[in-house]
Design a protein that fits this description.
- With 352 residues, this protein is an alpha/beta fold.
- The protein folds into 2 domains: 2-60, DNA polymerase, domain 1 (Orthogonal Bundle), CATH 1.10.150; 65-343, Alpha-Beta Barrel (TIM Barrel), CATH 3.20.20.70.
- It has 12 helices and 14 strands.
- The strands form 3 sheets. Strands 3-4-5-6-9-10-11-12-13-14 form a 10-stranded mixed β-sheet, with helices on both faces. A two-stranded parallel ribbon has the order 1-2.
- The protein is elongated and about 70 Å long.
- The structure holds S-adenosyl-L-homocysteine (SAH).
- The site of S-adenosyl-L-homocysteine has 17 residues, from strand 10 and strand 12.
- S-adenosyl-L-homocysteine binds next to strand 10 and strand 12.
């Protein structure tokens, strides 16, 4: 059955015309779906009963349904969504004092196989459609009193391995939902052809690249698929991206205690970024404990501070990701695993 969530206003107009309706009905439906978060045709009260009946037999809105939801004391909300077809993905609602952001999944599972990541443990399922990506945000918006202004594609999956649907979802979020492209961030493990393709799109989004290591050997230990693209090629693609779009990039650096968190690693990172004349901030992400590779642990607070200091001294701006929603397993892929492995074991803080 046709899912209407995921169609543009123009596509919705064509769809209703196919049902013998005037085009403006398509615009009304678009408003209901993207602005008013209607989950059913029944809720679209300015459409005639007859048309609502017709729509119900011809299509579905295509909203995800919630399999599980957990609210942390800091008001972070983690959602586990059921998709049509039975798969599940996670999304996170992140209210800050000055803005509300959400973290979206782009694939069911992931093929990157990162050794520190809970999503990787389950392997790859399938790509999400543009509608399924946008649906996560719309669902959360429907439950939120505050407007969601920011979205990061940092949930399950590798966005640039689902390129077309991800790009379509960005344009839906911009053109239909009304979000600013600058507030949308795609995070990639470093898919070079995807970065180069994105540089050619006229989309002033923010690109974040997960580096996690300053050299290829260490990077390959953390990100097995990284062997495919050398750091040098990834950074060259980033350079191209920065040049074409005029946008600064963000470099994500997941810090794992005793693995990649020494001052020498920081020094080496500053050096490789400088050598490529790459502007952009380094976002340090302290490892959230998940049962993946043995021996991986959260870095000491002092190591993070020292790492930052070395980068800043070398002229690199840094930010540190606030850990939110720890009590609800908010790191990527954790909730689905927790639910699937031990259904009642939520609300246990996994790292003190
Ligand atoms: N595939 C994309 C987006 C998904 S991962 C990418 O790799 O960028 C989004 C972010 O979550 C990445 O920066 C990743 O390093 C981080 N992440 C994954 N597992 C984590 C964990 N256990 N603790 C902290 N951050 C984690």
């Amino acid at each position: 059955m046709q899912h209407l969530l995921g169609l543009t206003t123009k596509e919705l107009q064509e769809f209703v015309q196919g049902l013998g309706q005037p085009a403006y009905r398509g615009k009304q439906i678009a408003t209901w779906i993207y602005q008013r978060h209607a989950q059913t045709f029944e809720a679209m009260t300015d459409l005639s009963k007859e048309l609502r009946g017709k729509l119900t037999s011809a299509a579905t809105v295509g909203y995800p349904t919630v399999a599980h939801k957990d609210v942390a004391p800091d008001e972070t909300i983690k959602y586990l969504f059921d998709l049509p077809g039975g798969q599940r993905v996670e999304s996170v609602y992140l209210p800050y004092s000055e803005r509300v952001s959400v973290c979206l999944s782009s694939q069911v599972g992931c093929a990157a196989g990162c050794t520190f990541c809970a999503t990787a443990q389950g392997g790859f399922g399938r790509n999400l459609t543009a509608g399924e990506i946008v649906g996560q945000l719309l669902f959360m918006q429907g439950e939120s009193a505050r407007r969601i202004s920011h979205a990061v594609y940092m949930g399950m999956g590798e966005p640039l391995w689902n390129y077309e649907n991800v790009v379509k979802s960005l344009s839906l979020l911009h053109n239909e939902v009304g979000m600013s492209l600058r507030n949308l961030t795609i995070s990639t493990v470093g898919v070079v052809p995807g970065i180069l393709a994105l540089a050619e799109e006229d989309l002033p989004i923010t690109l974040a690249v997960s580096l996690h290591a300053p050299n290829d050997d260490l990077r390959a230990e953390l990100i097995p698929t990284a062997r495919k693209w050398k750091l040098d090629e990834i950074l060259a693609a980033c350079q191209q991206y920065a040049m074409k779009t005029g946008r600064n990039l963000t470099f994500e650096y997941l810090m794992i205690g005793g693995v990649n968190d020494s001052p020498e690693h920081a020094q080496e990172l500053a050096k490789v970024l400088k050598a490529k004349k790459l502007p952009g901030n380094v976002n340090l992400i302290p490892f959230n404990y998940v049962e993946t590779k043995e021996g991986f642990r959260r870095p000491e607070r002092e190591s993070v501070a020292k790492f930052r200091e070395v980068l800043e001294k070398a002229g690199r701006t840094t930010t540190q990701r606030m850990t939110r929603g720890n009590a609800i397993s908010a790191a990527c892929g954790q909730l689905r695993r927790t639910i699937e492995l031990k259904p009642r074991a939520l609300n246990i803080a996994e790292n003190g």
